[in-house]
């Protein structure tokens, strides 16, 4: 066998993944030709494949001394030096490879990767863009675009990521790295509907549990087109739950949960069974006990340690509702109160006020395991989550038993399905008949609402109706029916109510607020336009307002419209505190009964509708009958002390906590 045949045999073994036999043949060739640069180069690569990195580097350096003009030698040596942690030398050799061959795609891509790993994002981007200008096979070019997309993601530039991934997927529609990056970018924008489509495609291509759970965390979408669309997404959620139920074959990849089942609660259905099934799946992944073992199992007989854990201890509706409760608990001689916030949480005057009154205000690390350990170390008797379901961090923490008794407040007014949460704290005024059937937790129905909400102060300056309407380009001679809710509360049943109000009041206009996410303009507004028809021009989309101007507007509207199925919470307090009448159509679930509960506590049933037709008639009467509207405003104002600054619900809850044993 001559030299070339011998070399071909060695190279074939090398390429077939047999570097040991290839090395043996390379050494035999070098005995005959000790200064053959190509053989030295290949020998070094074969040795590196077997883990002999230092030998491989030495062989490539010897090859370069014999032939310093070979770009591939410098490229491969650069990669080996990078593996050895010699990044500066590696960069020099990759740059040398490109100097020798400016069209060397692999060297340009490798240089970009190395600079990216080294944290030099701008230099890495230049290298990647240079590589993109060079010729390469489609799959190699696609990988380069993915590398550049990852860099843009790290920079926080998500639009280029979407563009790069779209280019890759146009050529390779099932290229999973591009789909995963595209999904991340779509969620950062955020574009929920596009993200769901991408997550569905990933799940179909790679039906692993983690991909199914990530898709599930994106369902359902925030807006539905009609009742059939809502039913479809409900069914899709149930189907995916069923597919994921049973023992999970977990791949070991990190768990990615993009959202809690937040939007599920806006469908107007009983979510208990779905959420219980969901929690059963996650129980296989999330720890039931902290790493150091179970917490204490019995409550302290005298001094009780009570913890509250939330991301929202600042100027947020959750704190507006429960700040008084926390302060009242902290003032009890037999309670020690601990607050647990998060590193990424906002802090403001509300935070400082809460911090100053409790035993300890602890900022949890972003790492979930460390956060669990921190809470467990406080040796609490009772742990209360004010708002499970709004953010993923506290939702996942709640799966772990961190105190003998764990409870939920109604900051997000829906059950959790999580078996480690023992009680759901509510009120007789907030619940309908057979309410326990809506909860996985044991439902506690206090006599009064456990909220001490302060009467909202009039905004400064307090403007006239003429001034506010002029500032917002609203015709003052028309009746304004304001629906001051987040758009994901706009159940499809609301469309017919809007249409009937506009039909019944030719001088009426409905106000809603703009929302800076794509689903508002792309999904909700077209849906409303289809239902309102020729009256759509009387739907006034108002800009998102600073708080003083919002309160000025809310004080002067003719009618505030509560949303069916998931109604006002914080906004109901604001509306009634300003004396503005709010029409409500209660549902059977807590999330649709907050305004009803406030009216019941006020002993006032005038604006509680029994049917959709009743809702429309009440709204029209308020809008068109000025005397009736003024009568309702006066009645609300006279009875406001029955819902603001109240201690009775808080005292009910304190007594319940005290009697736990």
From TrEMBL:
The cross-references to Pfam families, in alphabetical order and at most eight, read: Glyco_transf_41, TPR_16
Organism classification, top ranks?
Bacteria, Candidatus Blackallbacteria
- The answer on whether this UniProt entry bears the keyword Glycosyltransferase reads yes
EC number(s) recorded for this UniProt protein = 2.4.1.255
Q: Which GO terms describe its molecular function?
A: protein O-acetylglucosaminyltransferase activity
| Biological process annotations from GO | protein O-linked glycosylation
The TPR repeats are at: 37-70
Pathway membership of this protein?
Answer: Protein modification; protein glycosylation
Q: Where is the O-GlcNAc transferase C-terminal domain?
A: 288-448, 554-639
Q: Which family does it belong to?
A: Belongs to the glycosyltransferase 41 family. O-GlcNAc transferase subfamily.
The top EC class, named as a word, is transferase
Q: What is this protein called?
A: protein O-GlcNAc transferase
Q: Which UniProt keywords apply?
A: Glycosyltransferase, Repeat, TPR repeat, Transferase
Could you tell me the superkingdom of the organism this chain comes from?
Answer: Bacteria
Q: Sorted alphabetically, which InterPro entries does this protein's record hold? A: OGT/SEC/SPY_C, TPR-like_helical_dom_sf, TPR_rpt
């Amino acid at each position: 066998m001559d030299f070339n045949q011998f070399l071909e045999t060695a190279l074939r073994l090398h390429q077939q993944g047999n570097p040991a036999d290839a090395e043996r043949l390379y050494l035999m060739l070098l005995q005959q030709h000790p200064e053959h640069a190509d053989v030295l180069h290949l020998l070094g690569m074969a040795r590196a494949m077997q883990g002999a990195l230092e030998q491989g580097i030495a062989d490539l350096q010897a090859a370069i001394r014999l032939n310093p003009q070979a770009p591939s030698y410098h490229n491969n040596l650069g990669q080996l030096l990078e593996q050895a942690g010699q990044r500066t030398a590696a960069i020099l050799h990759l740059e040398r490879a490109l100097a020798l061959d400016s069209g060397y795609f692999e060297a340009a891509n490798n240089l970009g990767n190395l600079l990216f790993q080294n944290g030099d994002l701008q230099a890495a981007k230049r290298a990647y863009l240079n590589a993109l200008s060079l010729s390469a096979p489609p799959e190699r070019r696609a990988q380069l675009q993915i590398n550049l997309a990852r860099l843009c993601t790290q920079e926080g530039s998500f639009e280029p990521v979407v563009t790069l991934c779209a280019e890759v997927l146009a050529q390779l529609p099932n290229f999973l790295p591009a789909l995963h990056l595209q999904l991340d970018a779509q969620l950062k924008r955020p574009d929920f509907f596009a993200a769901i489509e991408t997550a569905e495609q990933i799940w179909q291509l790679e039906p692993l549990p983690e991909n199914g759970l990530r898709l599930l965390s994106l369902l359902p979408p925030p807006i539905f087109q009609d009742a059939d669309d809502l039913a479809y997404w409900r069914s899709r959620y149930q189907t995916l739950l069923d597919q994921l139920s049973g023992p999970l074959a977990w791949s070991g990849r990190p768990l990615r949960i993009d959202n809690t089942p937040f939007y599920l609660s806006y469908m107007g259905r009983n979510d208990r069974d779905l959420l219980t099934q969901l929690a059963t799946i996650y129980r296989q992944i999330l720890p039931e006990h902290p790493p150091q073992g179970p917490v204490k199992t019995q409550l302290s007989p005298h001094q009780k340690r009570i913890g509250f854990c939330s991301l929202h201890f600042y100027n947020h509706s959750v704190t507006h509702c429960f700040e008084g409760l926390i302060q009242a608990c902290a003032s009890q001689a037999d309670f020690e109160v601990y607050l647990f916030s998060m590193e990424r949480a906002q802090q403001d005057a509300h935070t400082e006020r809460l911090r100053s009154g409790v035993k300890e205000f602890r900022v949890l690390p972003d790492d979930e395991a460390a956060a669990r350990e921190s809470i467990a170390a406080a040796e609490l008797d009772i742990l209360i989550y004010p708002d499970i379901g709004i953010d993923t961090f506290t939702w996942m923490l709640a799966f772990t038993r961190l105190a003998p008794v764990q409870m939920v407040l109604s900051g997000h007014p829906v059950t959790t399905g999580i078996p480690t949460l023992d009680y759901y704290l509510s009120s007789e005024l907030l619940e309908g008949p057979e309410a326990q059937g809506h909860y996985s937790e044991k439902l506690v129905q206090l006599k009064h609402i456990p909220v001490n909400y302060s009467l909202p102060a009039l905004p400064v300056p307090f403007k006239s109706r003429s001034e506010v309407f002029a500032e917002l380009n609203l015709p003052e001679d028309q009746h304004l029916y304001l629906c001051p809710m987040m758009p994901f509360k706009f159940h499809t049943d609301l469309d017919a109510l809007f249409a009937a109000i506009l039909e019944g009041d030719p001088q009426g206009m409905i106000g809603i607020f703009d929302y800076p996410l794509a689903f508002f303009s792309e999904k909700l507004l077209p849906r409303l336009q289809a239902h309102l028809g020729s009256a759509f021009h009387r739907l006034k989309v108002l800009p998102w307002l600073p708080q003083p101007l919002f309160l000025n507007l809310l004080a002067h509207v003719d009618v505030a419209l509560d949303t069916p199925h998931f109604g006002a919470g914080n906004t109901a307090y604001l509306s009634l505190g300003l004396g503005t009448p709010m029409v409500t159509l209660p549902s059977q679930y807590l999330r649709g009964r907050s305004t009803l509960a406030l009216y019941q506590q006020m002993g006032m049933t005038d604006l509680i509708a029994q049917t959709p037709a009743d809702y429309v008639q009440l709204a029209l009467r308020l809008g068109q009958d000025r005397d009736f509207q003024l009568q309702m405003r006066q009645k609300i104002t006279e009875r406001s002390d029955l819902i603001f600054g109240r201690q009775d619900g808080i005292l009910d809850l304190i007594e319940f906590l005290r009697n736990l044993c």
